[in-house]
Protein: Aspartyl/glutamyl-tRNA(Asn/Gln) amidotransferase subunit B
Amino acid sequence: MKQYETVIGLEVHVELATKTKIFCGCSTAFGGAPNTHTCPVCTGMPGSLPVLNKQVVEYAIAVGLATNCSITQYCKFDRKNYFYPDNPQNYQISQLYLPICRNGGIEIETAAGKKTIGIHEIHMEEDAGKLVHDDWTGSSMVDYNRSGVPLIEIVSEPDMRSADEVIAYLEKLRMIIQYLGASDCKLQEGSMRADVNLSVREVGATEFGTRTEMKNLNSFKAISHAIEGERARQIELLEEGRQVIQETRRWDDNKESSYAMRSKEDAQDYRYFPEPDLVPIMISDEWLQAVKDRQPELRSEKLERYKKEYDIPEYDAEIITGTKKMADIFEATTAICNKPKKVSNWLMVETMRLLKENEMEAEDISFSPENLAKLIEMADAGEINSSVAKEVFEEIFKNNIDPEKYVEEKGLKTVSDDGALREVIEKVVADNPKSVEDYNSGKKKAIGFLVGQTMKAMQGKADPGKVNKILMEILG
Structure:
């Protein structure tokens, strides 16, 4: 039986984190009523002229540097002509001939070890609008809020051979871009989108097979399923002696199948020509150096620093630095309370648990480092016990409450009056002679029940360690 190899390259579109669009002053904020973030420029009105947003260029350079690309210091824009309702000008301003970044690559971890995925180019372009389909009436409406939002398109070499490698590449790319602050890379909001170019060939063959492009992929799960589904579809065609057609296909995640959208265009189909309304971009050595000097500490550098600077396990450091948001919270909280191990514990245990339970990403965390630091200080000072601390943290996680005020209002402070605590414990001992008898006859676990009854009587506001100590004294 023939063995097949999958060959995959990606086109990753990333919406940049500028406040305004690439060629006008309209807001790039996600959401908003349809067609409210628009003006004559981004809706393609006759006579309107684009003006390039400098921050777009700087974000593109930053991503290029972080992905080991060479920067094209003389680059320019081109017109990509195509006719579609969400494309108001009937062309898109993009880069074909002189993209801003070229010939880079990033290293990923695979089951077989480290592997470098080449990056052919990164170019800047404007996003199109969005078609909103009404299934009830069968009509489609256009929202131009997204039209003109700045994008970079990161075009990889066809170096990936499996869905696992694709996901590893995307996760690494997303982490780099988030660390740079160039984009939030939220797939669910469309600020990071991947088109998968896939072909199959017999193992040992040197020629590429006919590729298809898969669109409408807005989660890592959908990307993985689409790759497996398209691989199987192409192999089935070849096994039946039929040809794979070069085309663009749309993935339906609900049906877990794809369907043909249109035949795949080549560059000449778009009739590219130099954009006449924009002058070429000259990136001086000084400008390039200024962007280099502003490059933040990336994950690999941060990981090495954590090992030297903070006394936390390597596994913890790897998880915490896995997202910029988690790393930022860790560093800011540690700067306030100077207890890195305690901060790490709260992030690694309770925060990760609540993220999983609520099906959230680390980027969705909304609590402040100040409130986490206050909670850690209160628990360390014995003002609240561990079970109360967990209860309070859940409120911090959900609503970013001030733990000091919350504990005061709810009366959750640990009772520190030893006399009052001893009185309660003596009553619990008197009320539970069977457990006392079990303890005295060698069943030492019986003390656990007495501790529980004491905590219940104290409404959870006692220090379990202190309760244990006093019980041991009373029981002799």
Observations:
- DSSP finds 15 helices and 16 strands in the chain.
- Residues 418-475 form a domain with the Arc Repressor Mutant, subunit A fold (CATH 1.10.10.410).
